[in-house]
Amino acid sequence: MTAPGGPSLARVTIAAPTRRMDIALPDNMLVGELLPHLLRHAEGALGEPAERHGGWVLRRTTGAALEAHRNLAAQGVRDGELLHLKPAREDWPELAYDDVVEVIASGARRAGRSWGAAATRRCGLAVFAVALLVGLYGLAYGGPARQTAAIVALAVALGLAVVGILLSRAFTDAGAGAVVAASGLPYAFFGGAWLLADSGAGVLDIGAPALLLGSAVLLVLSVLGHAGVAGLPRLFVAGIAVALTGLLAALLTLGGVSSDGAAAVALTAVIGLLPGYPVLASWIGRLPFPELPSRAEEILKDKPLPRRADVFAAVVRADEVLTGLLLATAFSSVLAIVFLGWSHPSRSAMFLIVAAVAALMLRSRLLATPRQRSPLLVAGVAGLAVLGIGAVHNDVLPGLVLLAAAALAGGVALYAAVVFSQRQPSPYLGRAADLLDVLAIMALIPLACAVMGVFDDIRGLFSSIGG
């Protein structure tokens, strides 16, 4: 919409059957909510009662009816547009044309958006990020010695951070600066880890000291990017959260916990904290919550409210923080599941992966926006894939069982796509999912303890006491 300042209004002309009205309509209200007000405003200019022709609809000049369950902004109604208030059952004549090529072009535009400047920008930034990942692969597997590769990776990470900050601050392109700086975060982690890695070790075969240093360098570069770059803070919040998870796993391993136990604790921590992420994001984003009165006299006091612009800015900050935390949860969960489930996992580790996958997919139901729900869903599906492929890889299950399980999972997903896109699930199903969500998160702690061997130690302790 092009309404300058104040409430967002669409200044349109409504053509009723007997007269026209120039009116400003809120573009965020549903068309079905606006129609009763328009009918009252146009009373006397409608002609026959609505009961004779099934009510009224708003149509464009082309004859396309505006959908009653969508607002004006979502349907592209702009200032100065002419809308026709017509009976719902009235036939609208098809537009005549004399140029079939123009009609074909118009139909193609309706089929999908054309490639524009925004698509070119997104494609270029995506190719840049993928190219840097390919470069990291070349540095890891075909590059110089491990310590030399570490120094080169750290130099690349620092250089990308500086370039990203310059793009954001000096050239006022925060989006491109964020992508450039975030593309250096993998270089930062591997650069720090390779400094302490053995010369003959594999690229991913890093011990606890290397994991500790790599996570520390990742934390420093993520904080630097978050402070220096003004765009897409979710990427750097995700880097900070992943670095903290890596530090936790490294410290546990250095403290004597097995590598599987450290991965189990990290997986439990990132998923178990999911219910608290919205509160943490609200606190970091400094959302202005209303103060509850502590005495009866305070109920009647008029307390000053924050400015609307400040509230909107706080909401954006909190949303970015929450999205970053969810991205970090998905990434860390997939890494931990791959570590636990790929190479001959124990029975406790497999049960832990099942509980983690269930918690990820069930918790995603409570997130409204696609960019927040999608990471958890993708992580859950990836966890299921790792569990099944790992079981076949380790000769735990035959391949036909995996095929049957994949067909069953695909059938459930297809049913959900076809049915639940048309109607909401029943309240009973939603309540059952809530209970399973809580049970899955609660089961993570005892299962992680089982992977760490805590129960075996307790059993051995009691056996020694009994002996």
Automatic annotation (TrEMBL):
Membrane topology designation: Multi-pass membrane protein
Superkingdom of origin: Bacteria
Cellular component aspect of the GO annotation: plasma membrane
Ranges that cross the membrane: 123-142, 148-167, 174-197, 203-224, 236-257, 263-285, 321-342, 348-364, 376-393, 399-420, 432-455
Domain EccD-like transmembrane: 120-461
Cellular localization per UniProt: Cell membrane
Entry coiled-coil feature ranges: none
Keywords (A to Z) from UniProt: Cell membrane, Membrane, Transmembrane, Transmembrane helix
Broad class of where this protein is predominantly found: membrane
Cross-referenced InterPro entries: EccD_transm (IPR044049), T7SS_EccD (IPR006707), YukD-like (IPR024962)
Pfam families noted in UniProt: EccD, YukD
Keyword Ribonucleoprotein recorded: no
Family: Belongs to the EccD/Snm4 family.
NCBIfam families to which the protein is assigned, alphabetical: T7SS_EccD (TIGR03920)
Protein name: Type VII secretion integral membrane protein EccD
Organism name: Actinoplanes octamycinicus
